[in-house]
Design brief:
With about 280 residues, this protein is mainly α. Helices cover about 60% and strands about 5% of the residues. α4 packs across α5 and α5 packs across α11. The model has no long low-confidence stretch (mean pLDDT about 90).
Length: about 280
């Protein structure tokens, strides 16, 4: 759990600059590399703040604003709230909504006025947490699978930015279909499935194979979630114009399926734990 020296920070910055990484993303990229290199197991917030501060000192002429390590969101009643990664790694003792950028007053009002909306928000936060921790686990090691997984997570983050900015457009359906397909194929490739391309863009078939090869407590939720994902081809050539609630529901289904694929080989899952908690209402698709 060693903090990098000033020279090590400079070396990381030089490497990222040579690779063409944008300056506003270098602190996050450098942090990710350092966590992997040192197999960091301590608190996340102090080391993340250290990298932000050091990169601001390295580039004093540029205004650098901190941004979350992974940009995700969870929605309720037509509003998409930004989700920041948890402050601590290696434990699931925090509440799923702790990392949601929402005031306690708003959260309480949602719970009192629409309990179903609150619990759906709760489950989406579990998905966000699991996607982030699976990302940090680096459970995907196959080279081609890493490419699939990276594209899936990047696409989810792009869609989350659209929803938070209230600027979702006709491309959202295709984006969610692509992210879901690639996440499923990443897992199957990691599990040594011979030819993931044989599925084409058939998301339900991909996830049926996942349920068969890597059973999990959420198996019964996969088919109804997959039913929300539109055909990749049709969403590309005949993109649906989605209302706000429809767009948020589609993203929630894609987020669940992507997270569910990766958490099946991750070391921990907040969703699995909540799914076995008798005091938590089961998710309704």
């Amino acid at each position: 759990m060693r903090i990098p020296t000033k020279q090590e920070i400079i070396d990381l910055d030089d490497d990222l600059a040579a690779e063409g990484v944008a300056l506003d993303d270098r602190a996050n990229q450098a942090l990710q590399r350092w966590l992997k290199r040192t197999q960091w197991s301590g608190e996340f917030l102090p080391i993340a703040k250290h990298f932000d501060e050091q990169f601001k000192l390295l580039h004093p002429s540029v205004k650098l604003e901190g941004r979350p390590f992974m940009f995700l969101c969870a929605s309720a009643r037509g509003v998409a709230y930004e989700y920041h990664p948890p402050l601590l790694l290696g434990q699931c003792s925090i509440s799923p909504t702790d990392s949601l950028q929402i005031s306690s007053t708003e959260l309480e009002r949602i719970y009192k006025s629409n309990a179903a909306a609150y619990w759906e928000l709760f489950w989406q936060c579990c998905d966000c947490f699991d996607l982030f921790t699976a990302h940090m686990d680096n459970a995907i090691t196959d080279t081609e699978a890493i490419g699939f997984a990276t594209a899936a997570k990047d696409q989810l983050q792009a869609s989350a930015r659209q929803l938070v900015a209230m600027s979702a457009d006709a491309s959202l359906a295709q984006a969610c279909a692509m992210a879901t397909e690639l996440a499923g194929k990443a897992l199957l490739k990691q599990l040594r499935f011979a030819d993931v391309r044989s599925f084409g863009h058939d998301v339900p078939s991909i996830y049926r194979e996942i349920v068969e090869r890597a059973p999990a407590p959420t198996d019964d939720q996969v088919p109804p979630a997959a039913a929300h994902i539109p055909s990749y081809v049709s969403s590309r050539y005949s993109p649906p114009i989605l209302a706000t609630l429809e767009a948020q529901r589609l993203f929630a289904a894609a987020l669940f399926l992507c997270s569910d694929a990766f958490r099946r080989i991750s070391r921990q899952s907040m969703y699995f734990a909540a799914n076995q908690d008798a005091t938590v209402p089961r998710r309704q698709w």
